[in-house]
Amino acid sequence: xxxxxxxxxxxxxxxxxxxxxxTYEIRGQIAISNDPNWQTRTVISVGFGEYYGYAQQNGSFxxxxxxxxxxxxxxxxxxxxxxxxxxxxxxxxxxxxxxxKVDYVQPNEVMLVKYPLVFRVMxxxxxxxxxxxxxxxxxxxxxxxxMLVLPIFFMLVLPKIxxxxxxxxxxxxxxxxxxxxxxxxxxMSDMLASLFGGAKKPKNTKKIRR
Length: 210
Description:
- By secondary structure, the protein is of the alpha+beta class.
- It folds into 2 domains: 123 residues, Immunoglobulin-like (Sandwich), CATH 2.60.40; 47 residues, no CATH class.
- It is built from 5 helices and 10 strands, in the order αββββββββββαααα.
- The strands form 2 sheets. The chain has a 6-stranded antiparallel β-sheet, with no helix packed on it.
């Protein structure tokens, strides 16, 4: 009975203590072209600096002694932007490794990728913004252009449109413009009063004394 209990305790100790000491490796490949010395400026970060690795001459890398868990693997290079990959190492399935894309907007969405990992360059790093240059089209984007163009349009185009109209309409427009410019034009209040049968306003007349 004593030996059976002792063997059970040793088995549990082996599963708990020694299993926690088991570490694994994260392997992958980095694809960067037209840059012969990119390996010297590249670092592979696992778990935001918890583990580090370095790229070999052929672009492959190995990050050793990684405990089971979930980690974000990043390829850090000052000249390139490379998308990170999340790696999950299972402690129950004897180190089974699963890799998926990192989505900060929808973290629950799982998009699996192949393992060993493959990192590709998304774009080069731009340290400076492109200097703005003046173009002729910038004039038309200004809000002041419609304010300048519309008065010119009314001054030059509308008289020509008026000349193109038929004589009767042209005559009506001329009569209307004469009535508007006539100083002896009756008061609008008197016209409305006469139309609706109201009393006319007495006009104020001033006598000139001599």
